[in-house]
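Re: Re: ligand-bound prediction request (bumping)

Still looking for help on this. To restate: I need the protein modeled with 4'-deoxy-4'-aminopyridoxal-5'-phosphate bound, output as structure tokens. Inputs repeated here so nobody has to scroll up.
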Amino acid sequence: MKDRKLLMIPGPIEFTPEVLRAMGMPTTSHVAPNFIEAFGQALERLRQVFLCPSGQPFVVAGSGSLAMDMAAANLVEPGDKALVVNTGYFGDRFGDILERYGATVTYARAPAVGDAPALEDVEAALKGGAYKLMTITHVDTSTAVCADVKGLAALGRQYDTLVVVDGVCSVAGEEMRQEKWGIDLALTASQKAIGVPPGLALVVAGPRALDAFHERKAPVGSYYADWTQWLPVMEAYEARKPSYYGTPAVNLLWALNVSLGQILDEGMEARFARHRRLSDAFKAAVAALGMGQVPVSADKTATTLTAPYFPAGVDRSMLAHVKEAGVIVAGGLHPAIKAKYFRVGHMGVVSASDILATVGAIEYGLAQAGYEFEPGAGLSAAQAALLRR
Ligand code: PMP
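Reply:
Sorry for the wait, this slipped through. Here it is.
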């Protein structure tokens, strides 16, 4: 029997055979011509995936937290004021990172777990605040709440505040239009909808973010994250010239270039639509099985993941049964509700059959946990949603 499990957590995700093959290629020098070409092409493709033709991409070895660290280290000077739009665990993390670089942080907090702060409340904070920057977690992976980045970014522009978006759980899955929406810096990591094993921090800085960096008086407080060093490296590779600051993650970069090519072959609009369609089908199954979700309303829900509450009488021991049925999903993360819910990632190369397999495995887990429901109710709802489109 095949013992391969389907990985349906919110990152790392399933990767394509072509991406995994690139990971296994014999490693070359980081100044070999074929590597320089791949790095240069990946930088060009990042601009297209982030929908930010005027942006400057940075690709550095590290996880998503390094991308957050890079944003804070290069944009914040001691004493700057920052507003964190907080929809969960990763908003708290961004606040901590900003404070580490000397920012005074104010939080615009969601009124409840699963909710997002109202635009009026964020506007009230911006009005009185003189904030140098605001951060938004596009999809908070702890709550599956999707923030209204378009509306929030417009407010940031209106109040002359740099808009920084943590898109770790959104970029290349959730609709995000960096340039059109006025986002000054967007960041992600390789292991989610970008479709590459963990290990790359990805940042695209728009012109206003780069200006703020160039105008800073204080030196950047991080050695490794400093754009003073990385900017010339990125510019050199894009001009197809070798360069060096820290050794690039050669195989990960090859894999990134392959994956970005696949993403652009699908097309960003088609990709956003596929994520919406599969998310709708999965969420229909969750509802049909009698489970609520952490986000308080459909308009605040991500399309890259779903966070269902366990039904009454069922706890996280059910997840082991889901795994027995061949699918790995994730437990809760938000400290206030950790034991009460679970998380299913559906991003990247995910297909309709992955959704149906996952719903089937969840039904198996629920049945093993003694929960009473109509067998196939989830599958039927998901299939009906898939066939409607
Ligand atoms: N932000 C969000 C929204 C995330 O989901 C994550 C990772 N789950 C991070 C930041 C941090 O990324 P990493 O774990 O790769 O450091």
